[in-house]
């Protein structure tokens, strides 16, 4: 029998179902796993990652690779292991996992830059030009004022002369040592709760997962800072993950105020690809000590990583819901485990998963029960809406409270998680609701742009002339969105500025920052907004918070809706009265006696969350069990039904499967959607079962007529 031939195992970047084999290159030097290769693929060439070596049967002709792009692995072994874990755990192709983890330019095959900090000085023994030109003179002035001069201090217009001078030898370049943090002293003494937490956190050796459970404004950020300070002073690195890009500027500013600018940076999607790659490379060289970022920042190599912080750990934005469905929080915990370092999850409203993990002894809990400034937590009052006259969805109780608050010179924050003017348009004569032609969802009226829009697929249209069912012209809007609230408030309070804060009003980061600046003038004003307002911001002059539509969260088919409602309300409530002015919260509801509303009004997250967790465990829902959704989409309903039935029929016995059932949104962008709900007693059993089951599903003839994927530990019903 002829011997098997050795071959390279390559994860070609992209959504491809398997690893591909290529011939070993001619030169015998062994390439390390983790380097990029350019490989022939079909008619084209593509970028892939060398993930290992194997042997192929001799009858297979292996293609040679085209080029080796790196001399050293792009990611250290621990991160390569993390990606392997992530591909297995979430049942996603390794090539696509790598693609998600790498900066765009590396994915496209660009070389890894070595952006060491450079500086310049006049060469001692070399003569400067006898008769310098204007620009040369300017350069000499710049270089003699501070010597050596950092690259960033040389104005762009002098760069060409600088290059020339380097060439002629009267200026020389030197590489600066890695920048270091410069620690500023704390502006106030820490309180007892903070000190206890810090002492415990600092005592941690190796991997431990901490849950820092502290009410809004309890000074969690200071606890992170004091915990990581010794690491930074010792030259080590720290990673802080935040759920959303909107939260990075303020946290970056705070980090830089405390640790200086030289070794602190943020990575986010508003940066150019070049800038992102530069920061990535600097962190990989150890030249950035404190890195802040959203989800994928988790995969940045940091050779001296000493600790990971996950701020607002309960936030569902940590779960990626397109492509590779990973949880950045859970993957960060896995990274900490692989690197044997501590990880701190912080939140005022921890997820039920994390609370359960504390109960199970997997996480250690630390508590901050008081606000750092000693401001009391706001009181929460229920406003029963039954039979009240409403103006644009606002009760007279809430409107009166607004007047009082403004008269006292304070600000009001009204929360409504619905963009647009009205969430539905219907016919007053026959009751027909205008739907998106491509989705099973009502169209939202955006009056400002004079468009009906679908929030699921982007479909848009004009306001129709008449009802498509009965041709009546009596079309009316139903319900309220933030645009309508803004309008009602402007009429009612003509002399007060009303700021609407949602994605339509403030599409960019700049616009948002500008409004935040206005708000921080602390003049009387009304802020109307969606969840963009609810997260992490600090509005010192807000003393009244109104939750306009509390009931929206009570009737969702998503089993996480009560948890989300609880978190949302307490997070928004936490924006009130954070400094010297006490705050209050009004909850508008039609169901004042609903048990969850009652619990909300008590404002005790811990107690309410414990009850919700008990309910979940009794109902055999996560976190008590492991859940996976198998979702299928196709133009024909029969095709998805056939696939999901066939998949269900070949599932192992350890899985309990219900469905097929229509997805929460039955049709999206012209595709019918249905799902199987797959349960197992534990995550381990789930993992084992999926490993045998999914390859079978892939082989099913029915699989060819649908698009399908699985979402392991889903955070949203789809
Ligand atoms: P959290 O992250 O828990 O919401 P922050 O860390 O943002 O809380 O702190 C809330 C406010 O309290 C900030 O303005 C912060 O500067 C202030 N603060 C934190 N710790 C103290 C302290 N020990 N004494 C006084 N003020 C503090
Ligand atoms: Zn009609
Ligand atoms: Zn649509």
TrEMBL record:
Zn(2+) 2 binds at residues 436, 439, 454, 457. Pfam families: DEAD, PriA_3primeBD, PriA_C, Zn_ribbon_PriA. GO terms for molecular function: 3'-5' DNA helicase activity; ATP binding; ATP hydrolysis activity; DNA binding; zinc ion binding. Its cofactor is Zn(2+). Residues 201-368 form the Helicase ATP-binding domain. Keywords: ATP-binding, DNA replication, DNA-binding, Helicase, Hydrolase, Isomerase, Metal-binding, Nucleotide-binding, Primosome, Zinc. PROSITE patterns: HELICASE_ATP_BIND_1. Its EC number is 5.6.2.4. It is an enzyme of class 5 (isomerase). The keyword Zinc applies. The keyword Protease does not apply. Initiates the restart of stalled replication forks, which reloads the replicative helicase on sites other than the origin of replication. Recognizes and binds to abandoned replication forks and remodels them to uncover a helicase loading site. Promotes assembly of the primosome at these replication forks. InterPro entries: DEAD/DEAH_box_helicase_dom (IPR011545), Helicase_ATP-bd (IPR014001), Helicase_C-like (IPR001650), P-loop_NTPase (IPR027417), PriA (IPR005259), PriA_3primeBD (IPR041222), PriA_3primeBD_sf (IPR042115), PriA_C (IPR041236). NCBIfam families: priA, PRK05580.1-4. It catalyses: ATP + H2O = ADP + phosphate + H(+); Couples ATP hydrolysis with the unwinding of duplex DNA by translocating in the 3'-5' direction. GO terms for biological process: DNA recombination; DNA replication initiation; DNA replication, synthesis of primer; double-strand break repair. This is Replication restart protein PriA. Transmembrane segments: none annotated. Belongs to the helicase family. PriA subfamily. Component of the replication restart primosome. The gene is priA. Binds 2 zinc ions per subunit. One of its GO terms (cellular component) is primosome complex. Zn(2+) 1 binds at residues 427, 430, 467, 470.
């Amino acid at each position: 029998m002829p011997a098997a031939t050795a071959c390279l195992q390559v994860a070609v970047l992209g959504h491809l179902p398997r690893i591909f084999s290529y011939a070993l290159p001619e030169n015998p030097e062994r390439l390390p796993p983790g380097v990029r290769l350019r490989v022939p693929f079909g008619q084209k060439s593509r970028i892939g990652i060398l993930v290992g070596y194997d042997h192929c049967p001799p009858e297979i002709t292996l293609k040679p690779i085209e080029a080796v792009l790196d001399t050293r692995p792009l990611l250290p072994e621990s991160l390569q292991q993390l990606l392997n874990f992530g591909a297995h755990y979430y049942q996603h192709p390794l090539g696509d996992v790598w693609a998600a983890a790498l900066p765009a330019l590396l994915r496209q095959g660009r070389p890894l830059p070595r952006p060491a900090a450079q500086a310049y000085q006049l060469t001692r023994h070399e003569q400067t030009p006898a008769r310098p030109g204007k620009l040369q003179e300017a350069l000499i002035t710049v270089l003699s004022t501070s010597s050596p001069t950092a690259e960033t201090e040389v104005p762009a217009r002098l760069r060409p002369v600088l290059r020339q001078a380097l060439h002629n030898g009267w200026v020389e370049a030197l590489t600066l040592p890695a920048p270091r943090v410069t620690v500023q002293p704390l502006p106030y003494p820490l309180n007892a709760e903070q000190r206890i937490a810090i002492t415990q956190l600092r005592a941690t050796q190796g991997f431990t997962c901490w849950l820092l459970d502290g009410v809004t404004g309890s000074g969690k950020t200071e606890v992170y800072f004091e915990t990581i300070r010794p690491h930074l002073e010792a030259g080590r690195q720290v990673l802080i993950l935040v759920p959303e890009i909107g939260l990075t500027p303020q946290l970056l500013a705070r980090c830089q105020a405390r640790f200086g600018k030289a070794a602190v940076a943020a990575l986010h999607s508003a940066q150019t690809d070049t800038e992102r790659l530069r920061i990535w490379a600097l962190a990989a060289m150890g030249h950035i000590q404190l890195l802040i970022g959203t989800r994928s920042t988790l995969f940045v190599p940091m050779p001296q990583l000493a600790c990971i912080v996950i701020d607002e750990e309960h936030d569902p934005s940590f779960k990626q819901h397109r492509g590779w469905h990973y949880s950045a929080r859970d993957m960060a915990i896995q990274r900490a485990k692989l690197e044997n370092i501590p990880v701190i999850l912080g939140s005022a409203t921890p997820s039920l998963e994390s609370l359960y993990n504390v109960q199970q002894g997997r996480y250690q809990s630390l508590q901050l029960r008081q606000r750092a400034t000693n401001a009391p937590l706001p009181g929460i009052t229920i406003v029963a809406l039954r039979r009240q006259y409403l103006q644009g969805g606002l009760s007279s109780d809430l409107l009166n409270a607004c007047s009082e608050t403004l008269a006292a010179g304070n600000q009001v924050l009204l929360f409504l998680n619905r963009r647009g003017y009205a969430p539905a348009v219907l016919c007053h004569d026959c009751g027909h609701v205008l739907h998106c032609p491509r989705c099973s969802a009502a169209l939202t009226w955006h009056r400002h742009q004079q468009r009906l829009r679908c929030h699921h697929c982007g479909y848009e249209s004009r306001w129709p002339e008449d009802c498509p069912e009965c041709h009546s012209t009596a079309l009316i809007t139903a319900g309220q969105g933030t645009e309508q609230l803004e309008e009602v408030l402007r009429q009612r309070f003509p002399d007060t500025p009303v700021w609407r804060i949602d994605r339509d009003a403030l599409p960019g980061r700049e616009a948002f920052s500008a409004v935040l600046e206005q708000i921080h003038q602390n003049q009387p004003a009304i802020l109307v907004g969606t969840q963009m307002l609810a997260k992490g911001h600090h509005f010192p002059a807000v003393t009244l918070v109104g939750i306009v539509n509390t009931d929206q969260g009570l009737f969702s088919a998503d089993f996480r809706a009560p948890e989300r409602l609880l978190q949302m309300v307490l997070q928004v409530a936490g924006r009130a009265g954070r400094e010297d002015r006490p705050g209050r919260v009004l909850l508008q509801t039609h169901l004042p006696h609903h048990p969850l509303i009652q619990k909300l009004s008590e404002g005790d997250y811990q107690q309410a969350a414990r009850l919700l967790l008990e309910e979940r465990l009794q109902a055999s829902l996560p976190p008590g069990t492991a859940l996976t959704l198998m979702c299928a989409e196709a133009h024909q309903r029969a095709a998805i039904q056939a696939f999901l039935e066939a998949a269900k029929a070949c599932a192992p016995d350890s899985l309990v499967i219900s469905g097929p059932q229509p997805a929460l949104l039955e049709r999206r962008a012209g595709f019918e959607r249905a799902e199987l709900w797959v349960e197992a007693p534990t995550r381990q059993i789930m993992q084992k079962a999926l490993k045998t089951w999914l390859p079978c599903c892939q082989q099913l003839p029915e699989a060819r007529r649908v698009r399908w994927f699985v979402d392991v530990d889903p955070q949203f019903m789809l």
